[in-house]
Write a structure and sequence with these properties.
With 613 residues, this protein is an alpha/beta fold. It has helices at residues 2-10, 28-38, 43-83, 90-139, 142-146, 150-192, 194-201, 203-241, 243-248, 252-305, 310-351, 412-419, 442-446, 463-468, 476-485, 489-493, 512-526, 542-556, 591-597, 600-612, and strands at residues 373-380, 389-396, 401-405, 427-432, 435-436, 449-452, 530-534, 560-564, 576-581, 584-589. The radius of gyration is 36 Å and the shape is elongated.
């Protein structure tokens, strides 16, 4: 829910929500071309796999013709036996059947090898795509995630990638197999009888019309299905992550109603697309049966005239039955390709999203810096048409304790985001020790900062590992020392497993205040050059806050520190207080100086104590 509020605040809802209902894939041919280019690294393996599929199909297609020869020999032997001119040549028939068995066995072996090889390719493609998406996430600017549901990103990395890889694993080889089968069967039918083959081919125009109509109707529906699936994932993930808030505000009904609306849209697009896809088979079977009836009549007539052998009729009937099946499967695969193109398009759209600006070629080292910070005429807006930091300038000396205060929306947290390059300034510049922060690598810049936020973040691991996240190379004793400094050691020791206690996914098995203590311990362990405290003690009781404040005062000695606070009583001892209003610094000074001025800060400070009184 908080993500939704942020998107509304920035005016970015709908910016990356995928295609609108009813909209077709933007560029089917272009997406398929990108997919083929992406598969270029596997072209040798794919070529071998498809060659094996084609060879397997060729051996399979030859089978009915050879079986027809056995039938012809059997029929001639029976006639000779009845007329007394000979008998059945079982040896010759046995040899034909053994050869046929070997042929089918070879076809099966080649098909198995092809399936094994293609499965490996599909798994590698899936691994590669998910790896690239994961790496892409780390290169995207935070502005992207301000306007995209996390569930939509998850849908791309799971559902869309699965759709693409399943097509590779099954449909691609089936397409080659079916095309080879159609061509091979057509050649074999022509070798048996031209008139019957022409009759069989009369069903193709009708089949093509059916395929064209179904594909045209189903293509936008498959795109809708993928889009609504992403929306459903995003809604469920967002509601689950904020289930306590939803329950607290009795929002269950609204949440369920919204899910029902999304689910209904998903249901309608899914059943329509699947219905049309499923309609293909019975329609094609109907056309095939019409042709089958005509071929049986014409074949019987030609056999009576002696134009073809009995075994040829048997072989042709088998070919006719096999001829409609690959055409039907090709039609079905064409639907799958539409769905695959829609999924691949979403994956490539994500991979092609604009990334953060490139890192400097010769970056400044973050080592041995004193910690002076300067903002020079900084302007910034989350969207171009709305500037929220107008003309921000300040020089902060090394080791100073700087408090940033102001009403909600004044731009306090935004200043911190600009300092750590979560966002880049629209105009002006930010300097650390005289170096533009753009001259550092992002990792190097952020390694100088320790950050404690109002919103805690802990992950599914032990308490020890959660604290160690601030410094992955830290020893167990270093973690415990950091915990003691953050006044959290005593609490941890009272737990059944102590530092080895596992936190669940939402860290709901400890209190909000205890979570905050752990994040503070993590920051202490990281031993940063510059500290950022965004309402760091807002979730703890007054007694604990006093203890943490002492630990923080010790930690902030010799370090430049930025403190964002709403409770002005917590920042009385700050060296510099920046009072912000509507994106500008309206007052600067220490606590006593600002009270004496009787300006905006004095009004804010007095209003808090008036409220208390």
């Amino acid at each position: 829910m908080k993500h939704t509020e942020k998107r509304k605040q920035h005016g970015l809802i709908g910016g990356h929500q995928g295609m609108m209902p009813g909209e077709k894939a933007k560029n089917f041919k272009g997406t398929i071309a990108k997919l083929l280019k992406y598969l270029g690294r596997f072209r040798v393996s794919i070529a071998i796999s498809l060659l094996l599929a084609a060879m397997s199909t060729i051996f399979f297609v030859i089978g009915p013709k050879i079986a027809g020869n056995a039938t012809t020999k059997l029929a001639k032997g029976i006639i000779a036996q009845l007329t007394g001119t000979g008998g059945i040549d079982f040896v010759a028939i046995g040899q034909i059947m053994l050869f046929l068995l070997g042929l089918y066995l070879l076809s099966s072996v080649l098909g198995g090898l092809q399936g094994w090889l293609m499965s490996g390719i599909a798994t590698k493609v899936s691994y590669s795509m998910r790896k690239e998406i994961s790496q892409k996430i780390n290169r995207l600017p935070l502005s992207y995630f301000d306007c995209v549901q996390s569930g939509d990103v998850l849908s791309r990395i799971t559902n869309d990638v699965d759709t693409v890889t399943q097509t590779l694993n099954q449909s691609l080889s089936q397409m080659v197999t079916n095309c080879t089968q159609v061509i091979g069967i057509l050649i074999m039918m022509l070798s048996i009888s031209l008139p019957i083959t022409l009759l069989a081919l009369l069903m193709l125009p009708m089949s093509a019309i059916i395929v064209g109509v179904v594909v045209k109707q189903s293509q936008p529906l498959f795109q809708k299905q993928q889009k609504y699936l992403g929306n459903a994932n995003g809604h469920v993930e967002e509601m689950y992550g904020a289930h306590l808030v939803v329950k607290a505000f009795n929002g269950e009904k609204n949440s369920i109603d919204e899910f029902e609306k999304i689910n209904q849209s998903l249901y309608e697009s899914a059943w329509k697309s699947q219905f049309l896809s499923g309609l293909m088979m019975p329609l094609m079977n109907f056309v095939g049966n019409l042709g089958y009836v005509g071929i049986c009549i014409l074949g019987g007539f030609l056999a009576l005239k002696g134009s073809i052998e009995v075994g040829d009729i048997q072989a042709f009937i088998q070919y006719v039955r096999q001829f409609t099946q690959p055409i039907t499967q090709i039609a079905n695969i064409s639907n799958v390709l539409q769905q695959t193109a829609a999924a691949a398009e979403r994956v490539f759209e994500f991979l092609e999203e604009p990334e953060e600006s490139p890192e400097p070629k010769q970056p400044v080292s973050p080592e041995n810096l004193e910690g002076s910070v300067s903002f020079k005429n900084v302007k910034f807006g989350y969207v171009p048409e709305k500037t929220i930091i107008n003309d921000f300038s300040i020089d902060i000396k090394p080791g100073q304790k700087v408090a940033i205060v102001g009403p909600t929306g004044a731009g306090k947290t935004t200043i911190v985001k600009l300092l750590m390059r979560f966002y880049d300034v629209t105009d002006g510049a930010v300097f650390i020790d005289g170096h533009n922060i753009k001259d550092f690598t992002r990792n190097g810049l952020r390694s100088m900062f320790g950050m404690v936020l109002q919103d805690t973040w802990l992950y599914n691991a032990s308490i020890m590992e959660n604290i160690r996240y601030g410094k992955l190379s830290a020893s167990e004793s270093e973690v415990i020392e950091a915990a003691k400094a953050a006044q959290v050691h005593h609490f941890v020791k009272t737990l059944p497993d102590g530092y080895n206690m596992m936190l669940n996914e939402e860290a709901s098995n400890i209190s909000q205040g205890q979570k905050q203590l752990l994040t503070i311990a993590r920051t202490i362990l990281s031993d940063p050059q510059i500290l950022i405290l965004d309402e760091a003690t807002s979730s703890v009781d007054t007694r604990t806050e006093v203890l943490i404040q002492k630990a923080m005062d010790h930690l902030m000695e010799g370090r430049t520190s930025f403190i964002i606070a709403h409770r002005l009583s917590t920042i009385r001892d700050a060296d510099v207080i920046l009072v912000m209003k509507n994106g500008d610094i309206v007052e600067t000074g220490n606590h006593h100086e600002l009270l004496e001025k009787g300006g905006f800060y004095a009004d804010l400070y007095n209003s808090q104590f008036e409220d208390v009184g």
